[in-house]
Design a protein that fits this description.
- By secondary structure, the protein is α/β, with parallel strands linked by helices.
- The protein contains ten helices and seven strands.
- The protein has helices spanning 18-30, 48-54, 58-63, 70-73, 97-109, 127-130, 150-165, 183-199, 209-222, 227-249, and strands at 9-13, 36-39, 65-67, 79-83, 94-95, 114-118, 135-137.
- Strands 3-2-1-6-4-7-5 form a seven-stranded parallel beta sheet.
- Strand 1, helix 1 (18-30) and strand 2 (36-39) form a beta-alpha-beta unit.
- The chain is elongated, with a radius of gyration of 30 Å.
């Protein structure tokens, strides 16, 4: 069964290779999208090469709607985007993938049915296909090499919809079983190193000693240390001192 996530339908118009249909299905499912419609596939349907390339996303192919014409594939949609890298001489709003998928999210939330059309691999959508769309999506690609593979374009658009529709962390840190070191733990580490380095004569000459100590403290504050880090650094210094004392004893 299709997932419950509100989403647009991705309409593959006259795709030429089963492999690209399968790769497009895989790209969609990477981002939780599973509403695929296929218009007049060149090599017929079903297609075993599509199944092979879909990998774990074969369900999308089983549930995909297969249509003879673009008009049939879009008959229940209230807003349609056409993906194209070429100017078409038509008066239509042109969106980046990011802005288009934000608009799609808003329209779907308001109860509309949205579709995104993707053209065949060799030539893209025909003008009569684009004429059926309410808006155009254009990817800011290299103008000297603007041809995108079908699955690449599907993946890029699916990613942008996912990014607009779910909470995504811009950055996170895997703590690997430890917690961040507290200020007092970092302070004790700084004191330990300052004390031992002072005993070793590191802060020399005397007139530069205070500045060197400030720089060392600043070094610790710039480093985001975990408790495991501070324990390891304490251990390193203790072992170095033991090694020095053992060497002196010999």
């Amino acid at each position: 069964m299709p997932s419950e996530m509100p989403q647009p339908s991705f309409v593959l118009v006259r795709p030429q290779m089963g492999e690209n249909i399968g790769a497009a299905a895989r790209a969609m499912w990477n981002f939780g999208l599973d509403r695929m419609r296929i218009v007049d596939p060149r090599d017929g349907w079903p297609n075993q090469r599509a199944v092979a390339l879909a990998s774990g996303a074969g369900r999308l192919l089983d549930e995909a709607g297969v249509h003879d014409t673009v008009a049939e594939a879009l008959d229940d949609c209230t807003f349609v985007f056409a993906t194209t890298a070429r100017g078409r001489g038509m008066t239509k709003p042109v969106y980046s993938p990011e802005a288009a998928m934000e608009l799609a999210r808003q329209k779907i939330a308001a109860g509309e049915k949205v579709a995104v059309m993707f053209g065949p691999e060799r030539s893209g959508l025909e003008n009569e296909d684009v004429a059926r769309a309410n808006a155009i999506i254009t990817v800011p690609v290299n103008p000297e090499f603007f041809s995108l593979n079908l699955a690449q374009c599907v993946l890029l658009t699916a990613y942008e919809f996912r990014r607009q529709s779910v909470e995504i962390e811009g950055e996170r840190v895997e703590m690997a079983g430890s917690d961040w070191a507290s200020t007092i733990e970092v302070e004790k580490l700084a004191e330990h190193y300052e004390e031992r380095l002072d005993q070793a004569g590191f802060f020399f000459p005397p007139e530069k000693a205070e500045g060197m100590k400030v720089n060392l403290r600043n070094l610790w504050s710039r480093m985001r240390l975990t408790r495991s880090d501070t324990q390891m650094l304490h251990g390193i210094m203790r072992q170095m001192v033991r090694w020095k004392d053992r060497g002196n004893g010999e």
